Amino acid sequence: MYSLPAKEGRDGEIKRMMDAYGDAVLRTAYMYLGDAHKAEDAFQEVFIRVHKMFITFRGQSSEKTWVISITVNVCRDMLRSPWLKRVLLAEKPAAGDTADVEISAIQNDDNRRLFEQVMALAPQLKDVVLMYYYHDMATTEISAALSIPEGTVRSRLARARGTLKVRLGGRLDFDE
Amino acid sequence: MSNMKDFKSIADDMMSGIAVSERLKAQTLSKCAKKRRLVRTVLAPAAAAAVVLVCVLAVSAPQPDGEDTPNVMMATETASALMAGQERDATPEQAGEFLDGALLMPGYAPEGFTLHGIRLAEDGAYKRATITFSDGESYYVIIEETRQAASTSEGFKSADINGINGYVKSSGSAARPDTEAHWEVEGVHYAVTGSINEEEAVKIARSMK
Questions:
Q1: Which residue from A37, A90, B128, B153 has the highest number of Cβ atoms inside 10 Å of its Cβ?
Q2: Residues A139 and A157 sit within 8 Å (Cβ to Cβ)
């Protein structure tokens, strides 16, 4: 369990975690929300929660798994409630004050279609796909992070694979 | 043909322009610092108020329902004016003044949850107070705003909130519930939403008098 009551210590830890996991958090949020500005809003909310809950993290999971779990929860919150969404997105950045975000030029049409179809998955399926394939989490870790049985994780992964295969016209392999 | 085992590198290629800037890190650290100041300025008086409330209740006649305590968060200070579109942290007293007496604070909170912070916002046409409670791991939020709720009621069911027809929707699992409850009183939209079950959300709503 961490014990960092001093302002400098906690700020330093938050900065370290933003350096270590920031891109993963921001990109995960983008894959949920489909908008770079909203992803930045989610990023801020994630690390505000990390800051608040830091002393309660007792290492039940890896630090990265903990941060990614918070990210998924924040994105779900933003997607679920139109009222909460309005609150979370109330602070719009000023014009010219946002990151210069552009999706890379499309190198490969199959890859682009795969990326788009993962982003289009239902949230329950997207949760497990992003945790398993993007964050390389084990099904046991996903089970703990989402508070669902491991069997449910596996069945959702199977449904997601089937959905993606159909939507991509069969043009998808799953070789491990 | 793509392979799912390559998804991380594929996704990172597609999002190569999405990276955390120093500006975003600085903004986030600044917000964390604001939250820390809020804890010092809000929770300490709130804890003192709780002690006073306990003392008052201890010498008062027993209530029929001990959880439905009266609203003790009356406005006593003048809130600073907000520019349109701005948000700021506030004390319960400032929030009460800001909403011209329409602020309702809950007399009930689920076990382990305490006041986490209050934010005020004004957008010209309406004012909003957002009150967050947390048990350290999960959150719920009370929203009070001087405008009508969105008209959609899809997926909601009716719930009686102190004689007013509100509506509530719950999803998620038993371990991770997700509920929102909404009702209106004299043009003010009240909402309770977050990681609580339906029963608790309605209980919180009914304690806001």
A1: B128
A2: yes
Q: What phi and psi values does residue B4 have, to the nearest 5 degrees?
A: -60, -30
What crossing angle do the helices spanning B22-38 and A36-53 adopt, rounded to 10°? 40
Say if the Cβ atoms of A110 and B2 lie within 8 Å. yes
Decide: pTM greater than 0.80. Answer: no
- Secondary structure element (H or E) that encloses residue A9, with its range: helix A7-33
pLDDT digits (tens, 9 = 90+) for A29-80: 999 988 888 899 999 999 988 887 766 665 556 788 889 989 998 888 787 7
Burial per residue of B39-48, b for 16 or more beta-carbon CB atoms within 10 angstroms, e otherwise: beebeeebee
Q: What is the ipTM of this complex?
A: 0.78
The answer to whether residue A27 scores a pLDDT higher than 50 is yes
Res. A152: pLDDT tops 90: no
Question: A56, B137: Cβ pair inside 8 Å?
Answer: yes
**Interstrand relation of B114-122 and B87-89 (parallel, antiparallel or unpaired):** antiparallel
Instruction: Give the nearest partner residue to B193 out of A15, A30, A81, using CB atoms.
Output: A81
pLDDT mean over A143-158:
85
- Nearest by CB: B191 against A49, A83, A101: A83
Strands (E), chain A: 172-173
